[in-house]
From TrEMBL, chains A, B:
Keywords: DNA-binding, Repressor, Transcription, Transcription regulation. InterPro entries: BetI_C, Homeodomain-like_sf, HTH-type_TetR-like_transc_reg, HTH_TetR, Tet_transcr_reg_TetR-rel_C_sf. This is Transcriptional regulator, TetR family. GO terms for molecular function: DNA-binding transcription factor activity; transcription cis-regulatory region binding. The keyword RNA-binding does not apply. It comes from uncultured organism.
Length: 205, 205
């Protein structure tokens, strides 16, 4: 059996990924070590090294793992494109569970993003994640247009502003004392209304 | 004369700040040291320590310095609120000068943002910067409303989405291979048109 990645048994990988999540929330990216991850898992440090070799490789798999979790847990199941879009935005902005863990976790993610320019492997996987998430939003908007619920607009462009605003709100929420997420949620409501909804209030004047 | 901050002679502070800017672009925040900053300045490492004591204190003054530079260099002078807003967005998204320096510099800023949850002093100064910049945008929008150029909308909310989208676009630009800034610029055009402009195309359907 080869080392690193694909062939790690599912339950082993899941256990390591869960422990990585907890360690990232607790210590932040800069202070995380294979040892600290191993402490929160039922695997030893040497097992982690056996499967991943380096912290960098483990982190790349962790970013990949997040994407799998995103599709399973964050993308809502609904026939109504507007409800689907709104629920997805809420989950991305406020998390599945609110509170400290959500914020600490996004802090660690922001640290990973800020390392991407120095680390081609992080950059590649973050790009892939962003592209998949962008496509999910585009698909919801396209579905809304097809069903006649949304205006015939440019889905790529609206998806980009929604995702950039969410990313920016998270970064501001983390790095300032401002309540960015609530404001951005309100602003996105307005954006959705004026750019996607037919007969929007914005068009009465 | 007291150490640290206020009473550093202007030309000394400016020289240190310029050197900090260059060192941040070159090394990134994680690898920057007082020694590396001193190398790019005509001041010695001990002069830096005399004035600032620690790298942390120097960085806080650097974030403050950026805000002063923002008001002088980034905020455009124009009587037309729409032109003022558009020029400001362009400068924030694409920089005064395009290219590598702009991107490296924003990478360092993103690193500083990602450290804010662990560093109350960074958080405080970044919050202050964000609030001043938010107020500048709000004022432009209010001016546009007063002059009858913009719809009577909620300036705080529109300013929040503009700034969050810019922050998010920068973070995506830095951490992925996607061309986020161009897309966000296009999307913001649409947002400005549909939420601020009277008789916008978005209202014809």
């Amino acid at each position: 059996m080869s080392k690193y990645g694909e062939e790690i048994p599912n339950h082993t990988r899941e256990d390591i990924m869960e422990a990585t999540f907890v360690a990232l929330c607790q210590h932040g990216y800069a202070d995380i070590t294979m040892e600290k991850i191993a402490e929160g898992s039922d695997k030893s440090k040497s097992t982690l090294h056996y499967h991943y070799g380096t912290k960098e490789k483990l982190m790349v798999d962790f970013i990949k793992f997040l994407l799998e979790g995103f599709e399973d847990k964050i993308v809502p199941n609904s026939d109504d494109p507007l409800e689907k879009l709104n629920t997805l935005i809420d989950r991305m902005l406020f998390g599945l569970k609110e509170g400290d863990t959500h914020e600490r976790f996004h802090t660690a993610l922001l640290e990973l993003r800020s390392q991407a320019p120095y680390n081609e492997k992080y950059k590649k996987q973050i790009t892939k994640n962003d592209e998949v998430i962008q496509k999910i939003i585009v698909k919801i908007i396209e579905e809304g247009i097809e069903k006649g619920k949304f205006k015939d607009t440019n889905p790529e462009r609206i998806a980009t502003i929604i995702l950039s605003a969410i990313d920016g709100a998270r970064a501001r929420q983390i790095s300032t004392d401002r309540e960015a997420a609530e404001n951005v949620r309100e602003a996105l409501d307005r954006i959705i209304e004026s750019t996607l909804m037919k007969n929007s209030r914005g068009c009465k004047q």
